[in-house]
Amino acid sequence: MLRGIRSVIFQVDDLDQAKAFYSAALGRSPYxxxxxxxxxxxxxxELGLHPDVSKLRPGAGGAIAYWKxxxxxxxWQFLLALGARAVEAPHDVGGDIQTAILADPFGNLVGVIQLxx
Length: 117
Hints:
19% of the residues lie in helices and 42% in strands. By secondary structure, the chain is of the alpha+beta class. An 8-stranded mixed β-sheet has the order 2-3-4-1-5-8-7-6, covered by helices on one side. The radius of gyration is 14 Å and the shape is globular. The relative contact order is 0.21. The mean pLDDT is 92.
């Protein structure tokens, strides 16, 4: 079900400061830059900066690796059946990209992402 890590999303409470840091660290500007999210392409992987800290806080535990899946609905049900707990149900985040977050039986957050096509 899980094919490979596609994205790592960091929760940030200051998007402009986070973009300045990661743009310098990566030597590039984000390819996607909006007030609600900034995304960097890092050798085919996504580093995302997410400024909504209402559910998840920055710092330890504030990063989620998103595993690429072919069918988010099937993957969601499969992981729940294995004992994962629902955190954020599958939903569209724009551009026909679907994401969801579960917690594994140990409390670690696991993201899943289905890309269009």
